């Protein structure tokens, strides 16, 4: 018997327990031993399956030698951080879906795990049910990975899809996303792009060796300023608005660049058809070319699938955790303010002023407004031109063009 404790029995934790019970036979066959849930830790008085102890006391888990694998699905860092540290220091393997904890303290927790000969696995932290961390660290590791483009936040993708396809209002779509269990405890983490930023940091760490712990430096704009007008503008140019997380490696400088921003995604792009709560992550490697990973990015069962996948990895290698990819030195972040890009911006006012300020641009009608797509230019040059233009015409918030 391999003892498991689940800390935090919300959307994800309850899904993990459900999967461990429902797929018990399959999992026993896969791991060669029974994975038995001994404890569920939660402050609420919940109904728990027979044979499982519901506790409010973390020490019960820490002091029970039968617990070999701890699942941390509490979210946040206040309790999750010290509890995870104590579990690892006590020689317990820890498996988590907690992107905030991994993005903020992942480097430290991984080194504690290594020092104690245990695993700290976090497949579920990014892309919900999509296998992405393990494929990057194992299946693709023979490649030099140079670029990532992803839709990594299920809630905002759901909101944008509902607004675009069904004309549902932002508050109504947000309410439904909450009901479905997609939204963070603080919805601003989704809407303002912080959740996507954390996931981008985790991906850049896996793909390029970016440091974990300072994800706040990644330029991030969420979807709170995206309007119906932006969606019409994107449609006029044959595309849709999506919240994209982007990262690329500047190999010659040994730095990486990344951002999270609402983007115009043209209909020919593979990410265009990624709707609803689905996530997709495109990774470029020098031999494999582009690979795209697609699936449900949030929700109880898909996320539980990724957590339990990590539990299986741990259970199959209890005494000798599988070696994960390690980078000799961290790759520093460079915001690359002059990197070339194109923008799509809504406007009302003098078209000639727009043409003069943005040479080579294309202008299209969209309802009562117009939209301009710029030619490619350094980001700082474009920003200054748009800024200067705002005194002559009324501009919407710019979308990056993917
Ligand atoms: N709030 C997150 C999302 C949950 O919407 O993607 C899954 O990480």
What do these coordinates show?
With 402 residues, the protein is an alpha/beta fold. It has three domains: 2-129 and 301-315, NAD(P)-binding Rossmann-like Domain (Rossmann fold); 141-296, Dihydrodipicolinate Reductase, domain 2, CATH 3.30.360; 340-401, Alpha-Beta Plaits. Helices cover 36% and strands 25% of the residues. The chain has 14 helices and 19 strands. Strands 7, 8, 9, 10, 11, 12, 14, 15, 16, 18 and 19 form an eleven-stranded mixed sheet that branches. Strand 4, helix 4 (80-89) and strand 5 (93-96) form a beta-alpha-beta unit. The radius of gyration is 23 Å and the shape is elongated. The termini are far apart. The model has no long low-confidence stretch (mean pLDDT 96). The structure holds L-homoserine. L-homoserine (HSE) binds at residues 128, 153-155, 182-184, 190, 195, 297-298. L-homoserine is lined by residues 128, 153-155, 182-184, 190, 195, 297-298.
Summarize the structure.
Helices cover 36% and strands 25% of the residues. With 402 residues, the protein is α/β, with parallel strands linked by helices.
Number of discrete helical segments: 14
Ranges where pLDDT stays below 50 over 5 or more residues in a row are: none
Span of the ends, CA to CA: 50 Å
Share of residues in strands: 25-35%
Query: What gyration radius follows from the Cα positions, in whole Å?
Result: 23 Å
CATH topology of the largest domain: Dihydrodipicolinate Reductase, domain 2
Quickly count the domains: 3
The helix/strand class is alpha/beta
> What proportion of the residues is helical, as a percent range?
25-40%
- CATH class categorisation of the largest domain: Alpha Beta
The unique ligands bound to this protein are:
L-homoserine
Q: Tally of extended strands?
A: 19
> Looking at this structure, what is the CATH superfamily of the largest domain?
Dihydrodipicolinate Reductase, domain 2
Architecture of the largest domain in CATH? 2-Layer Sandwich
- Shape descriptor reads elongated
